[in-house]
Design goal:
Blueprint (H helix, E strand, L loop, with lengths): L1 H11 L11 H10 L4 H8 L14 H4 L5 H7 L11 E5 L8 H13 L4 E5 L8 H21 L12
Parallel strand pairs: 1-2
């Protein structure tokens, strides 16, 4: 996921020259990740430490507090701009990849900016590979939610209820 984010950041902000921060192995990972789907990338790079991929041996997270990278992170932080359209946010409280609190806070931030937000906990009884396995549930829910918008049904926000 970090490689995907870095590839996107480098495309949007070429002046950062992110590949120049990587060692040869890191540049190879960026080249390969640019051609892989998410599932293949996770299988290939699981448990890889980013400190083994940078030229100076620091983890990628160490750069995020430094300029110009901290400005780019700040500019791209979700939740700072209110969505103009109704929004559905779903997240599992047992997510094994992204913290639940992060998804809930995003929805709260948008609610605080006056957005029409519906937040749902994709709770599961099987706490293995939750992020991956809940993707199909979330996709189905999102398709049904969007179908309701196209049919003219107003979404029911639940701001303040999560």
């Amino acid at each position: 996921f970090v490689a995907f984010a870095l590839i996107g950041a480098n495309a949007a902000y070429p002046e950062l020259d992110i590949p120049s921060l990587a060692n040869e192995q890191g540049r190879q990972v960026l080249r390969e990740a640019n051609t892989l789907c998410t599932f293949d990338a996770v299988l290939r790079y699981a448990y890889r430490q980013t400190s083994t991929l940078t030229a100076d041996g620091r983890p990628v997270s160490a750069y995020l507090a430094e300029e110009p990278y901290s400005l780019v992170v700040s500019e791209n932080r979700l939740g700072t701009i209110r969505p103009a359209a109704p929004t559905l946010v779903e997240h599992s409280s047992l997510d094994d990849v992204l913290p639940f609190a992060q998804g809930r806070q995003l929805a709260r931030d948008w609610c605080g900016r006056g957005a029409n937000v519906q937040f749902r906990d994709l709770f599961t009884f099987i706490p293995l590979f939750v992020h991956l396995l809940q993707a199909s549930t979330a996709a189905t829910n999102a398709a049904n939610w969007l179908a309701g918008r196209f049919q003219g049904t107003a979404p029911a926000p639940n701001c303040g209820g999560f």
